[in-house]
Design brief:
Helix content is 72%, strand content 1%. By secondary structure, the protein is mainly alpha-helical. It has one domain. Helix 7 packs antiparallel against helix 17, helix 9 packs antiparallel against helix 10 and helix 9 runs parallel beside helix 11. The longest helix has 44 residues.
Amino acid sequence: MQKNRKKIAVYSTTAVLCLLIAAPPIIALLFISEYGVDVPFADQWGGFVTGKNGTLKNFLNGTLTLENLFHRHVVHRIFFPRIAMLTLSIITGYNVVMEMYFSMLMLTSALALIFMAYRKEFSQSKLALLAFIPISMILFSLAQQRNLLLGFQVLLYMCYSAAIASFYFLRKCEKPVDFTLAIAFGVIASFSLISGLNVWPIGVLQILLSKAKNKLRISLIWGASGIISGLIYFNGWMKPKNYPPMTYSLEHPIESISFLVANIGAPFSPTSFTIASIAGVLMLAAIGFLAYMAIQKRTSINSFWLALIGFSLLSILETTAGRTFFGVEYALTSRYATVTSIGLIGIYAIFLKHRLDSKINSIVFWALLLMIIIGYTGALFYGIEQGQITKEKRSVMAEALLNYKNLTDEEIVQSEIHPNAKYVREGAKILEENCMSVFTCGDNK
């Protein structure tokens, strides 16, 4: 009887911990359910519905080509996200809320891979499960509320999830199947978002830092795969005419540094530039300390966690180079919180592993844990507040889309559905004729 009670207690504790790990994804799912609105918005028009290379328009007209799928969107090649969005639009009648749920599926898959890597390094004890909860909080923070409520951002989640999958399988790069999967996911990441190309240089470092034999041969094959992907990516690629100059960040180093540190710290405080900057400085100091530990060989650091940090940091540096032009406050934009969280997970996991190695490691770990808890809580209130605002605005857009024939171009633009009324009218006609999005067959009768 006593043994049965102990078993029940163990199972109950484990179940509670698993529920706590699942809580952040569940909250994010409920967030989408409550505030997601089925109306195409912003890039979804020119980037998918209509325009010369509109995937949906060309598919419905029977003129979709491989070139259309591969065509550049701003600076990105979103080949795989276009296929995913097209598939979802066929199945759901282009309900963009389904794209949001698909993004959640990608993020949940990433969490599962991170958990499997975590389980290999840490025990499967209840304490290890407890310590994994902050990782779930980081990955599903509502600091990324804009990404969660915009179906088109599936391209971000496909890129980052594929990158994490690539690093996961690269852990066993000596095994042909795992190495092949790592390359495959690297390709998916590369042709989902431009920052996906960062998988290749970071992957080389992961291989060199691993315990694999034949590192040179594996690195050469990996590097060759990256070069081929890069050549295909940039074949015929041209920088958009209205894209900000990349030299701006070099010409304004102080602004660039301010943007960088705030961008790194944004998940901890998406509303305060000062607090985000302080958090960013602390995270950079933590990364510097990790580098010092690695150089001094005071400890062996798992290359998977280092890959997450490297990928995130390189992506943030690219964002800084391309977005400082818009002002340092732009660093707090919600869309960048997702990639920053990937690096934060790596930092947390390493200090969790080595928290008992020294007093300073312990201090850093507990300070980081406190920051994560406070940041997640603050982002929760911030996300809900922004979610309510977003829902109200998108509901107005949905109404404007339904009545686009009765609205002037100025009124369409004022609804904020898209700054180009021509795109909206052309796209709305396509959607209406095919009973998609806000339009139902009943409306067309």
